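Everyone, describe these structure tokens:
***
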Amino acid sequence: MKSLKKISLLLIVAALMVFAAACGGGASKDKTEGTATKENANKELSGSLVISGSTALQPLVAAAAEEFMNKNPKVSIQVNGGGSGTGLSQVSQGAVQIGNSDVFAEEKTISGLNDNKVAVVGMTAAINPKVGLKDIKKADLIKVFTGQIKNWKELGGSDQKITLVNRPDSSGTRAVFNKLALDGATPAEGITEDASNTVKKIINETPGAIGYLAFSYLTDSTVTALSIDGVEPTAENVQSGKFPVWAYEHMYTKGNATDLEKSFLDYLMSDEIQTNMVTKQGYIPVTTMKVERDVKGNVTNK
């Protein structure tokens, strides 16, 4: 009997020791995991990004990059223009980490890229303020850009010869404007400039000039943004689908984004950027759109 009691006591002690060890091991594991998670969360970002492409998107990305670098002193971000075609080809070739584009990569027959839609941009025709018009019929806009109408007096404007200011073939702004504002018509020859800032400057300085710009460049009175068929080029009209000339602003990576690329792209989609900087810079948050457009140009309600 004594032997049985002794054995029972030893078994109880052993069980208690196993239980204590298990509890201790679990506590130790939790502590280790907590430390590792904390270390990952506090990991300091470093490295460099080169971004190129759409000049319509360039102001937003450049402003966001500046803020991001202020928060992450060991990160360097260079934001270049060159047009959507350039951005897509350079990121596809691995020459840059991110390619900005106003058009889907599929429209340029480029594959193997990951799409990140960071904003929406509206676009419209912009004229020299002395032309004296604020609205134009779409049919007349097509005639202006195809050279069928050569003087603004034909449309009730001032007696001035029309000077076209176009973007190069690599421009996403040109592709969007031609497709959605000109119904695919090919513009006549005119002045061709690569950067939106330069286009805006030429329109302002050239009597009778007309070009096309993203809303983000239409924040002052140096050029006049035209309504089309009586619909004003406003963010609200783009969001509702009333104003048809708009595009997603894409930021493409080649394959999956690296830690630094993803961190910057996530920052662009943060509330800090989407609810403040995006609208202040003249863009439209993707989340506020009531319609959506696919690669074929089909627009549907969300």
Observations:
- The longest helix spans residues 2-41.
- The mean pLDDT is 88.
- The chain has two domains: 47-121+247-301, 122-240.
- Residues 122-240 form a domain with the D-Maltodextrin-Binding Protein; domain 2 fold (CATH 3.40.190.10).
